[in-house]
Design a protein that fits this description.
- The protein is an alpha+beta fold and about 260 residues long.
- It has 3 domains: about 45 residues; about 140 residues, 2-Layer Sandwich (Gyrase A, domain 2); about 60 residues, no CATH class.
- About 50% of the residues lie in helices and about 10% in strands.
- The chain has a 4-stranded antiparallel beta sheet.
- About 10% of the residues have low confidence.
Length: about 260
């Protein structure tokens, strides 16, 4: 039994105990509040910090590769400083030259809700863990933080969501026992199902992804994923992306940029 399930059981038992034996409203309220503190401190530990984004491969010397591609357009391929040159080219909006740099990420710990958003970025290649061939009986799932909901209602909402999702996995397992194929049993699972994938894209498409998904208006999960991906590529190709650092840190762009 997972720690998440144990917390739910403890919370429910303590709440029922307090309602049965505590006649005073204040005492009953205190017991329930203590249970909620436990819930807040321990609930859903498996979802915390499970999102990982690793840059596993990229074009060798991506800044130089893009700089050489830009330079050949002007018959001046060799440069002493490819970084400054490519930053100037990007500021001019000459973006096709940075399509020569490619990056491959390994992403895990995201929900299907997040991956559905990611694959809409069409100038990319994806290889994702299959629900058709791989059993989901022992899989994890992702829950939102619900930061826009009050603390009191958040705990209740997370409990409802967690209970519903666990029931969907119980139904899934029951269907498999009845001989239903995995590719059909998966129909009962929710978008909370955790997944993993490989994602390859070029620098131009990656800039577009960052501009869309680092913005404060982006959904929280894919924004977090975008921040982690940005932190990876900035280490190896800073000149291709450093005009987006403000966006990564604040969710806002204070100056116009080209995609």
């Amino acid at each position: 039994m997972t720690l998440r399930m144990n917390v739910i059981i403890i919370l429910n038992c303590c709440t029922r105990f307090s309602e049965k034996y505590f006649n005073l409203p204040v005492a009953r309220s205190l017991c329930i509040s203590r249970c909620q503190v436990l819930w807040q401190a321990m609930a859903f530990p498996e979802e915390v910090n499970t999102l990982k984004v690793e840059l596993v491969n990229h074009t060798a010397n991506p800044v130089e590769a893009c700089g050489r591609a830009a330079g050949i357009c002007y018959d001046r391929e060799a440069k002493e400083d490819y970084g400054s040159f490519i930053k100037r080219i990007i500021s001019y909006g000459h973006m096709d030259v940075i399509e020569h740099a490619n990056f491959t990420f390994r992403v895990e710990g995201i929900s299907r809700a997040c991956s559905h958003q990611l694959v809409r970025h069409r100038h990319s290649s994806f290889s994702q863990r299959s629900q058709r061939y791989v059993s989901e009986k022992e899989s994890n799932y992702v829950l939102p933080s619900l930061e826009n909901v009050s603390q009191e209602k958040r705990n209740e909402a997370l409990s409802i969501m967690d209970d519903f999702i666990r029931k969907s996995y119980d139904v899934y397992s029951s269907l498999l026992k009845l001989g239903v194929k995995k590719e059909d049993a998966r129909f009962v699972l929710t978008n909370a199902a955790e997944t993993k994938l490989y994602w390859t894209t070029n620098a131009r498409s990656l800039r577009h992804f960052f501009i869309m998904r680092l913005d404060v208006s982006a959904q929280w999960e894919i924004r977090k994923m975008a921040q982690l991906a940005f932190d990876e590529v900035i280490k190896v190709a800073s000149e291709l992306f450093d005009d987006l650092i403000e966006l990564r840190n604040t969710g806002h762009l204070g100056h116009p940029v080209y995609e």
